[in-house]
Write a structure and sequence with these properties.
With 563 residues, the protein is mainly α. It is 62% helix and 2% strand.
């Protein structure tokens, strides 16, 4: 008997029971299912996480093949119809479950299994396509002036060069990956929609929101409010930015193109006011800075650093991320560090994810494996964003031992940059949310036209004349992290809300703009007690209320960008 057959028999034996529990104690039934789920799924998930890490750090075809096979094993286990009926029975009888942890586990498990209740050939097709486009993204290198380059090089040119021709070449070179991926992405979108329709959802976007315990109506309401809240102040700062950029490039404002902004998607604020924000970081030990900061607030990251891959190398993913391999302390960060403001804030961001994890038991091991992860995408992104913002304060940089030549000038420039960043990012998130929604609702429409229509409406940037390219497909999140990006914006709201709550609790009488957390162990305690320790045992909206005493809103966020 082969391993595959033996594994299948073991799976059946472990989970074989009636779909109807009758008078059986529901707490006992739920605990039994949870234990068996962990027994099967934990080793599969760890193997998949390791395979995913290896694929992204090496870029090798064999590692991507292993990644795909590992994901297929997870999909096969979760696609079992008998298991789904069992968890569905538990959910239908959830009112009889008295233990709150078990009750929450049933809710989470139901969504996990529901997603996979589709034909295995569809799941495998989706996995294969996702793997293919992700590998293509990782192996892609833009060609600038006849030479293979990197995303860091593209960013460097867009940030520093005053040569409009070179800027255009670099911008277009970075976008060419979209044309490479366009057909595969369209097939992937169609496959994802097919999966959603099999589960009685109208499209994949609607399905993903449901699986992430979010309502489309609530989401659109928040984003419509944000649109109204940010429209006028964004236009004001963009007019100012455009005037400055036009002066720098010695062109008229109306001649500005997408490549004249300092980020390929205009999701970052250009550092053009007063000082070069990279200055304090050019000779800095960015890793040491992050290490010192997190140790100072009682959330050390030494083990994370030891397990991480932090510098550029051939074949490696150009995009930073953090991953928790086993929910037992093996937490890793992938980065491509350079000594500048972007990577200083990115490291604080990714290590922010790391401390909101099993690292140092910040999510306690006493929780079941299933719930031993962050509450929600938006909550971990919010934590990461809150810490990321600290690089825009000279007081923070000085506390970390960095030299700031002109503190007053730096703070003025950094404060303006932060305000601009919050506004610019909020408008960019509008594009991402509404594009993905539109793409999955009607994938056969002219997607590049949809993309640039939204870019024009929310970011004020027109499509270059005669441009006919799949620019939307050059954004990796659309390819490999579908229906995820709106959570970054919700995370920004949560970041502001948590920061204001910390200020109120730990720094009474101080303005939130003055608080940098440095050396305050009570900050780590606040994060553990109010956010980390509950893991996934609470729905995200309950956690937000518990941590900040308020439901999620744009109130605190609006105060931050108005400063």
């Amino acid at each position: 008997m082969g391993f595959k057959q033996l594994s299948s028999i073991l799976l059946i034996m472990l989970f074989m029971k009636s779909n109807v529990f009758g008078d059986q104690n529901m707490d006992k039934a739920a605990k039994s299912f949870l234990d068996k789920h962990e027994l099967i799924m934990r080793p599969l998930e760890i193997a998949a996480n390791l395979a995913w890490w290896n694929a992204n750090t090496t870029g090798s075809s064999s590692d991507f093949d292993k990644k795909e096979k590992a994901q297929n094993k997870i999909d096969e286990a979760l696609a079992n119809a008998n298991l789904f009926q069992e968890i569905k029975s538990l959910k239908d009888n959830k009112a009889k479950i008295t233990d709150s942890i078990l009750s929450r586990s049933v809710d989470v498990l139901f969504l996990i299994y529901l997603e996979k209740q589709v034909p295995l050939d569809l799941l495998k097709k989706s996995s294969a396509l996702s793997n293919k486009v992700e590998q293509s993204f990782n192996s892609f290198r833009p060609v600038i002036q006849g030479k293979d380059s990197t995303e860091n090089n593209v960013r460097g040119i867009l940030k520093n060069s005053l040569d409009s021709n070179l800027r255009q070449e670099a911008w277009e070179a970075g976008k060419k990956v979209g044309n490479i991926l366009e057909n595969d992405l369209k097939e992937l979108v169609a496959t994802r929609n097919q999966i959603a329709r099999h589960l009685k959802f109208s499209n994949y976007h609607e399905m993903q929101l449901f699986l992430n315990e979010q309502k489309a109506s609530d989401l659109i309401k928040i984003f419509d409010q944000l649109d109204e809240l940010t429209r006028e102040p964004f236009q004001q700062i963009k007019d100012e930015i455009d005037s400055k950029l036009a002066l720098n490039y010695k062109i008229k404002k109306e001649q500005l193109q997408a490549w004249h902004y300092h980020d390929p998607f205009f999701q970052e604020a250009p550092a053009i006011f007063g000082l070069d924000l990279d200055g304090p970081f050019k000779k800095a030990d960015l890793l040491g800075l992050s290490q010192k900061f997190y140790k100072g607030i009682g959330l050390p990251i030494d083990r994370v650093i030891a397990n991480s891959d932090l510098y550029e190398k051939k074949g490696k993913s150009p995009h930073a991320f953090c991953t928790d391999i086993d929910r037992s302390g093996d937490v890793r960060v992938l980065a491509n560090v350079k000594p500048d403001d972007y990577w200083a804030s990115t490291l604080l961001h990714e290590f922010g994810h790391a401390v909101y994890s099993s690292n140092n038991n910040n999510i306690p091991a006493s929780l079941p494996y299933l719930l031993r992860s962050e509450c929600h995408i938006l909550t971990t992104e919010g934590v990461a964003m809150m810490f990321e913002r600290l690089t825009k304060r000279s007081s923070f940089l000085k506390a970390m031992g960095l030299k700031v030549e002109d503190s007053e000038g730096f703070d003025a420039a950094a404060s303006k940059n932060l305000k601009n960043r919050l506004l610019i990012f909020s408008r960019w998130c509008q594009v991402m949310l509404r594009f993905e929604k539109g793409m999955y609702e009607d994938p056969k429409q002219d997607l590049n036209l949809l993309w640039w229509t939204l870019v024009k409406k929310y970011q004020g940037i027109s499509m270059p004349v005669n441009r006919n390219s799949a620019d939307y497909a050059s954004k990796i999140h659309i390819v490999s992290a579908p229906v995820y990006y709106h959570n970054y914006m919700l995370g920004e709201l949560f970041a502001s809300q948590v920061h204001h709550a910390i200020t109120k609790d730990l720094y009474p009488g101080k303005s939130p703009s003055e608080v940098i957390y440095e050396g305050n162990l009570k900050v780590g305690d606040f994060m553990r007690n109010k956010i980390f320790s509950s893991g996934k045992s609470l729905p995200w909206d309950d956690l937000v209320k518990f941590a900040t005493d308020k439901p999620l809103s744009a109130e605190a966020f609006s105060l931050d960008f108005k400063k």
